[in-house]
Amino acid sequence: MSAAVLRNWAAVALCFVALCSAAGAAVAQPGSTGALPGSVASEVRLKLERDGALSVTDVVTVPDGMTAQRVLPLRVAMGGDRDRLFQVTDVAVDGPGTAEATEDELRYTLRAGASTVTYRVLGAVAESGDVLEVRWRPVSGWDVPIDKVALSVIAPEPPRSITCLSGPPESSAPCTGAELGDGRGSRATELTLAPGERIDLTFGLEGGVAPPNAVFAASGGLAAAFALTPSSITGLVVLSLLLAGGATLLWVLRGRDARALEGAVGPVEVLVADAQGRVAFASPDGVLPGQVGTVVDEHVDVVDVTATAVDLAVRNYLWIEEVGDVDWRVVRRNPADAALSGYEREVYRALLPDGVDAVLLSELRSRGVDLAAVRSELYADVVARDWFARRPDAERTLWWWAGVGLAVLGAALTAVFALLGGPALLGLVVVVAGGALAWGSRWMPARTSRGSALLAQVRGLRGYLHAAGPSDVPEADRQVVFSRSLPYAVVLGETERWLAAFAGTRTELHWFGEERRTGDLTRFAQRFPGFLRALDGVLAQAGHLRSLG
Question: Per the database record, which ranges form the Predicted membrane protein YciQ-like C-terminal domain (predicted)?
């Protein structure tokens, strides 16, 4: 081969090398539109809506054989002990991958291929003097290198300024390129980002273009723990709904009782006549004096036991007599038998234990009485008679302890969250819920429909005690009607009126004795309230029951 031919081939080779070098340089120029083979590329389009939301479209290309993950915190430190809170909604993915947003972060997991992720950002618009600043990190938190980033911004009005920072989270290095562009659009580019690096984009707008919606919170300590956050606001809403639901339920259940207490009272037949024309007293639904008080106020009170003791005397189980001017004696007349209810037998035993046939009230005062069994039996009795679905005392106690336990749990959660910087306000929500439950426990016992019906009938019984007199009862039956009605007058607070109505009636009581008889009930009406006060005082010392006096 001649030297000339060799020189020609060498020239061709040098030309080929030069062309290849030039082509490679052209591919590496910033103005190139494609990513290098085997690299991740991201094209992000941001559009500010007039309602202040920032709509984001992120087109991500992941090479074959790779999986790319992104985790973007939605709480960003702003300095000065302040954090900025963002909220991401309406997350969707078109392509091989998934994306989701929680209260704390936005997360992608994308596989090989092209994926389009769309979402809306709230909290990106902040006021800065007379202008608005829109801020977002469109690219950040990736666990792989990003070789090519292209950003575009559209706003209702042309942006007045644009700032694009890239690199590590605290870096202030500018992006490779950022320009306002023409019309409403702006653009920015960045060639490469290492894993964990970010692009922080801020653009300024004229005030009034969109409503500001930026949310800031203390960056740490108690202020941050007790800050209003979406989770704490949700908790407050849920608590409000639960309290409203509970109040509605109580209103429905208690409304039946309110209607029984406030509505018109139908006829209640208290005085009934037998075939021979004799008149007798008959309580509504067969309710006994002690049961009346418990059904009305849902508690076993001292007056309920006092009325029961008087009723036992009227029914010939006990004898009551005055001893001097300051004391009273209770005497066993007939043994407690199966005709008595459980709580009546306990009242009988509390006054006259086995082996004791008579006792002075002064002796009872010094000896003391135990009414725990009376209380328990009376509560059980009103349930057995289907006036309450459950024992009122157990129902109150259950809900009270449930409320206290919930409040204690809330206090513990508050302390833990405050120490760990979590949503301590949610713990306070639980404390309030527990306190409300404990406070509302007093209204938890619910009467049955039969109990509510009895409540209305008791109003009729009180009306009878308040209006009836000797002229309403045949003379032959006055002693029986007066005596059988008296325990109900005691428990319903009509004693004074009932005694005054029959004070001049000439009759002797078969269950009550006194040293001096006057032939009518005048002295009895004067002295009997003293016996009731004395017995109330003795029973109140037991400490098991409420005293209404």
Answer: 282-502
